[in-house]
Design goal:
Elements (H helix, E strand, L loop, with lengths): L1 H42 L4 H14 L3 H13 L2 E5 L5 E4 L5 E6 L2 E6 L16 E3 L6 E6 L5 E6 L3 E6 L7 E7 L10 E5 L5 E6 L3 E6 L7 E7 L6 E6 L5 E6 L4 E5 L7 E2 L11 E4 L5 E6 L2 E6 L7 E7 L7 E4 L5 E5 L4 E6 L7 E7 L7 E4 L5 E6 L2 E6 L3 H6 L1 H8 L4 E3 H7 L15 E3 L7 H9 L8
Helix pairs in contact: 1-2, 1-3, 2-3, 2-5, 3-5
Length: about 475
């Protein structure tokens, strides 16, 4: 009986020891993975290849939200490129992401992104044209879905209509004076319907003007309506059909405009949306509106324009909100502010917004962002220039960053020098590097595999 009790006690002690050993080993793996992920983030700009390998190693060793997000950000960063180093305050994209506008100073550059989106083309094209004619800085750009009609708004209060049927040879077709008379001065915000036939201009005098651009050379002013606060506008959006517009004024008041009868705009939800909003974006169908300010954004359903319904409020790691963009279906958002990255959010489940990735690569703030209709192309602009991201295939990267990284670089390796530099003294034999001069990242042992390797080497003995 005594022998049986002794055996049971030894087994119990062994189980307790094993649990403690496993717990300690798991904590070591988590600490190693998080440390590698941190080094990867620090190396994204200086050594992107090393950053990718370290980030992948972190996920292989311990996959959690932190390591996965870090690897996703690194993989997305590899899809970015500098369009131009020149500062830009405004950007716009056509629906298919092929034509881009970037505004700086008193002119707007026109870009054909065809070569930029073809990885087989090494020599990328420069801007193909410049839109000039403003006396002051350009503070607004808008582009129709097909990229054939553009609006540029200057701080002198004039909005110029451009025919971009041949984007390399833009034609100035008309100038739209702001406000109730041609002498009104001040900056403007501008938006176009999907077909480019309807334009809405919001100026610094607090006037919202609706124009019919069916004949771009003979615009017809349909209405001028004074906003409730008669203050400067900081943002404006228009639905694809031109039937609903949303404005944000300098006081942060958000107003929904029903343009079913463009000659008589109606404020259908005046001051119903949250006050003190900094920026706003709207889905193409006009049924979803995203508003945001420092540290927070909110998604609203406008199915009933007179009674917007809040569907989600979520925290955003931005000290302020400088710009935001939505895909046509309202399922993906891009938010930017005074940081070196713009943040992509998944809004496909409106009640549960989820962070997708950070588009990094700036040393200064981002002033303006744009997304193609399907979210496959993104632009971000600021004092540091304009960057372009090819986000086609992002869903696969987010779903399984480990698979995406190994598929793109199956021979990824970490040598002993880098392991010693970044792994904090961890024994790489535990992770598949025993007897090797390099560690094959895609074959790294993780979890119980790493522990088993340690036991096989005799690194840990069971109690007797």
């Amino acid at each position: 009986m005594l022998a049986v009790l002794l055996a049971v006690s030894l087994v119990a002690a062994g189980l307790v020891w094993k649990r403690e050993r496993d717990r300690g080993s798991a904590q070591e793996r988590v600490a190693l993975a998080h440390g590698l992920a941190l080094h990867a983030a620090e190396l994204r700009d200086a050594a992107p290849g090393t950053a990718r390998d370290l980030g992948l190693a972190a996920v292989k060793i311990h996959s959690d939200g932190q390591t996965r997000a870090g690897l996703i950000d690194t993989l997305v960063g590899e899809r970015g490129a500098e369009l131009t180093p020149d500062a830009s305050s405004e950007v716009a994209l056509s629906g298919d992401g092929r034509i881009a506008l970037t505004g700086a100073g008193d002119e707007v550059s026109v870009w054909d992104l065809t070569t930029w989106l073809d990885p087989k083309v090494v020599e990328k094209s420069d801007r193909i044209a410049a839109l000039k004619g403003h006396k002051e800085d350009v503070g607004a750009v808008a582009l129709s879905f097909d990229g054939r009609t553009a609006l540029t708004g200057g701080d002198e209060g004039v909005t110029i209509v451009w025919d971009l049927t041949d984007p390399a040879k833009p034609i100035r077709t008309a100038a739209l004076a702001g406000g109730k008379n041609a002498e009104d001065l001040g900056g403007v915000r501008a938006a176009l319907s999907r077909d480019g036939h309807t334009a809405v201009i919001a100026d610094d005098d607090g006037d919202v003007t609706v124009w019919d651009l069916t004949d771009r050379s003979r615009p017809v002013r349909l209405s001028v309506t004074r906003a409730p606060t008669s203050s400067v506008f900081r943002d404006l959006a228009l639905s694809a059909d031109g039937g609903v517009a949303v404005t944000v004024d300098n006081d942060g008041a958000v107003t929904v405009w029903d343009l079913a009868d463009p000659s008589r705009p109606a404020r259908s939800a005046d001051r119903v949306l949250p006050a003190k909003s900094a920026e706003m974006a709207m889905s193409a169908d006009g049924r979803a509106v995203l508003v945001g300010n420092a540290h927070r954004a909110g998604l609203w359903n406008l199915a009933d324009r007179s009674r917007p319904v809040s569907t989600a409020v979520f925290d955003v790691p931005l000290a302020d909100m400088y710009d935001m963009a939505l895909t046509s279906d309202g399922k993906t958002a891009l938010l930017a502010g005074p940081s070196d990255s713009a943040i992509l959010w998944d809004l496909s489940v409106p009640s549960r917004p989820a962070r997708l990735a950070a588009l990094k690569g700036y040393a200064r703030e981002i002033d303006s962002v744009a997304l193609s209709a399907d979210g496959g192309i993104a632009l971000a602009a600021g004092p540091g220039g304009v960057s372009l991201w090819d986000l086609r295939g992002l869903a696969e990267v987010v779903a399984d960053p480990e698979l995406a990284a190994c598929r793109g670089n199956p021979g990824a390796e970490i040598d002993k020098a880098d392991w010693a530099r970044y792994a904090g003294g961890a024994d790489w034999s535990d992770y598949g590097g025993e007897g090797m001069d390099f560690l094959a990242v895609c074959l790294i042992n993780s979890g119980s595999d790493a522990l088993s390797a340690s036991v096989r080497r005799g690194g840990t003995q069971s109690p007797t």
